[in-house]
Amino acid sequence: MSNDGSGEEEQPETDIIFEARRDSTSEEPPMSEWSSLTTKSEENLKKKQYEQGLYDPGSGEICAAYVAQSDSTVLRHPYYNYPRISDPGIISALFGPQPKKIYPSDGQEYYLAICKTTNQCPVRIFHRNLINTHINLSYYGVNPNGVRAMGMALEHNTFVTHFDLNDNWLNEDACYHLGQMLGKNSTLTSLNLCGCRIGLSGMSRICEGLKNNRALRVLNVSYCKIDDQGLEQLAHAIMFLSNVCELDLSHNAISGKGCLHLAEALETQNKLKSVNLSHNNLYSFQSGICSVLERLGDNPEFEYLNLSWNSLSGEKVATSISTVFKSKLLRHVDLNNNRLCDTPIITKLIAGFAKPKKMKCFDLSYNPLTLTDAQLVIQKFQRSKIQALNLEGVKVNPQFVDVLKTIQEKRKDVVVSHGYVQGGFKSTGPDARELVLNRMEYLGKKRKKHEVDIAVVILQLVKENITFLEPKDFRNRLKQLRVDLDEDLVNAVQKLWPGEPMNKGAKTIALNPLADHIKRKWPDRKAPPTPPPEPEPEPVPKKGNKKKKMKKKINK
Question: Which end of the chain is more exposed for a tag (fewer CB within 10 A), N or C?
């Protein structure tokens, strides 16, 4: 810098790049005035100032502002002169999907969440037992709308193996969610839907998921009104390699038409070990039940068969049932309340009794069996290893009872029940001798002031060597002791203990047999002992004789 004569300091010349406005308005300046868009002069100002001596580069080190930058860090947007920050998650929160919450595998937290979203009241027993093996909701009155949350909670549950919904009326929607659960669950082994009234529509929904299930072993659909069409849906599920082993189909109005579909499924997949077809519409002229029995007989692991409360009869049905006895693991066959009768039919029915080695019970109760049929059954049972035979309501003869006694002597664990024994037995009532003696005992001790023990009186008469007495004399002797016996009672004593007739054919009472019966009845009572005989008195000397003797001595 230099000084003038005027005394004023010279100001360095500078180029105006941008002049800020001083007005207080908040309006944005026009685009022509933006500093980021202004074109810089090509002339290097620092070089020019260095030539004029107005700029000193210093130590010669390069300023960090002039270090070469990579192309990725060059700002391209005209609004900003600084690098933008990374997104903290705003864009994903606004435009991306909401992340799914991962629930534990037990399903407890998931069940409460589903109940909250569907506005359903959670079932405390179900929620608490999701970490146990059994969930029992029988007779609980479960709301069908709440079954959706239960099914979704059980889809991936690894604890529960038995689910009981006995007597809870379920609609089609509830059955749909149960089917969805069966299609995904791999832990549940037993499902009880007894009395749920699901019908054909509900059965079809459940079977949709049952086709893909490989874990379920026990299925109870009794009292569900599925009919033949529902059994057809279930047969298709069994054909799709379902592993159901125990099947309860009782009280469903199933006929032979539905059994035909089950027989077709058993031709492909024969894994059933237990079948309950009781209380259905099965008749002898239907070929479907015979086909099912023949398929079950081909399974060497079959164990339980229940065909009670149907109308089965005929040789064809009996032959089909006998094929079931080929299974060595057979344990129980129930045929009560059917129409099995006639000797040829029973002979074919029990032909395979001796084959199963571990059979526990065979039930033929309340079938119209004849005495000969019952005799054939007990004789065949004698050569088998069955532990229990039920023939309640079936009449038997005395020969049946004799055979049963010989069986029970050899095998003490055998249990056999039968009906009325016809012929060979007489009814026995109370012993008349006991009644007569008890009546005499009561009359003897009726008067408390003059009690008389009649048993001791009779024993005393025998001790006096009295063997026979007429009824009148017997009554008079007791009257003397103030014991009044009826004439009918005395005659009953004479008929029970008759003695030898007296003169002119008079009837008598034998006291010795009567005394023997008294001794057996009252062994503690005995006749009083006889008193010893009194000694004879010594003779008293006379007074006058002594005086005469004294006079004779004096005279001498």
Answer: C
Residue that is last in its domain, among 389, 418, 447: 418
Between CA 60 and CA 474 the distance in angstroms is 165
Q: Which of 401, 399, 395, 345 is nearest to 370 (CA)?
A: 395
Report the DSSP beta bridge partners of residue 332: 304, 361
| 534 assigned to some structural domain | no
Same domain, 479 and 507: yes
Residues 414, 508 share a domain:
no
What HEC string does 64-87 produce? HHHCCCCHHHCCCCCCCCCCCCCC
Distance of alpha carbon 36 from the chain centroid:
86
Tens digit of each residue's pLDDT (9 = 90 or more) over 222-262: 999 999 999 999 999 999 888 999 999 999 999 999 999 99
Strand pairing class (162-164; 134-136): parallel
Q: Are both 413 and 447 inside the same structural domain?
A: no
Residues 381 and 451 in one domain: no
pLDDT digits (tens, 9 = 90+) for 276-333: 999 999 988 888 999 999 999 999 999 999 999 999 999 999 999 999 999 989 999 9
Average pLDDT of every residue of the chain? 85
The Cβ of residue 33 has, within 10 Å, a number of other Cβ atoms equal to 13
pLDDT, residue 223, reads: 95
How many domains does the chain divide into?
2
| Pairwise CA distance, residues 287 & 316, whole Å | 9
Q: Residue 163 domain-assigned?
A: yes
Regarding whether 447 and 488 lie in a shared domain, the answer is: yes
Same domain? 446 vs 411: no
The answer to whether position 76 is within a domain reads no
Residue 524 clears pLDDT 80, i.e. is over it:
yes
Q: What is the 3-state secondary structure (H, E, C) of 247-307?
A: EECCCCCCCHHHHHHHHHHHHHCCCCCEEECCCCCCECCCHHHHHHHHHHHCCCCCCEEEC
Residue 550, CB half-sphere, CA atoms under 13 Å: how many? 5
Per-residue pLDDT, 503: 73
Tokens of 302: 């079959």
Token readout for 525 is: 């009572």
Q: pTM for the whole thing?
A: 0.65
Structural domain of 326? 108-418
Residue 307, Cβ density class (10 Å: 0-12 exposed, 13-18 middle, ≥19 buried): buried
Is the confidence at residue 450, as pLDDT, over 50? yes
Residue the block writes with tokens 């395979």: 352
How far is the C-alpha of 230 from the C-alpha of 198, rounded, in Å? 10
* 220 phi/psi in degrees, rounded to 5: -115, 110
Say yes or no to pLDDT of 20 above 80.
no
Residue 9 has pLDDT above 70, yes or no: no
Q: Which helix (H) or strand (E) holds 376?
A: helix 371-382
C-beta separation of 232 from 204 below 8 A: no
Tally of CB atoms within 10 A around 506: 11
CATH code of the domain covering residue 486: 1.10.238
Co-location of 496 and 410 in the same domain: no
Residue 80 in any domain: the answer is no
Distance in angstroms (rounded) separating the CA atoms of residues 356 and 266: 22
Residue 379 neighbours by CB distance under 10 Å: 14
CATH code of the domain covering residue 399: 3.80.10.10
Q: What is the CA radius of gyration of the chain?
A: 57
